[in-house]
Design a protein that fits this description.
The structure is a single chain. With 109 residues, this protein is α+β, with helices and mostly antiparallel strands. The protein has one domain: RelE-like (YaeB-like fold, 2-Layer Sandwich), CATH 3.30.2310. Helices cover 38% and strands 30% of the residues. The chain is built from 3 helices and 5 strands. A 5-stranded mixed sheet has the order 1-5-4-3-2. β4 and β5 form a beta hairpin. The relative contact order is 0.19. The model has no long low-confidence stretch (mean pLDDT 93).
Length: 109
């Protein structure tokens, strides 16, 4: 499976910015998770995911959460990341991921 990051129409890479804001160890864990998915596929990576809404999924890596969508290819597009602070994903984090999901799906047609 191919793993790529969402890039805004203006060329910004919000997932890279999120990773840059993490402690080196935490960022390395998220990057290692993405490599595990690329090498073994999502089902065999040993990582925990959950469906959030429709095509929007969440990857759990320790306290880090990364929203993603699966598209043709097969390709996983990492949309948005945040650090877990409560039981439920904050609404604004989900809304950000859904807006990016909409961009990705619009580009696939």
């Amino acid at each position: 499976m191919r793993v790529r990051r969402y890039v805004t129409p203006g060329g910004a890479d919000p997932v890279a910015k999120y990773l840059d804001g993490l402690a080196a160890r935490e960022a390395a864990r998220v990057v290692a998770a993405a490599h595990a998915i690329e090498e073994r596929g999502l089902d065999d990576s040993g990582l925990t995911t959950r469906q959030v809404r429709g095509h929007l999924w969440e990857l759990k890596v320790g306290a880090q959460r990364v929203f993603f969508v699966l598209i043709a290819g097969p390709t996983m597009v990492l949309l948005h990341g945040y650090t877990k602070g409560s039981q439920r994903a904050p609404t604004r984090e989900i809304e950000t991921a859904l807006a990016r999901l909409k961009d990705v799906l619009a580009g696939e047609q």
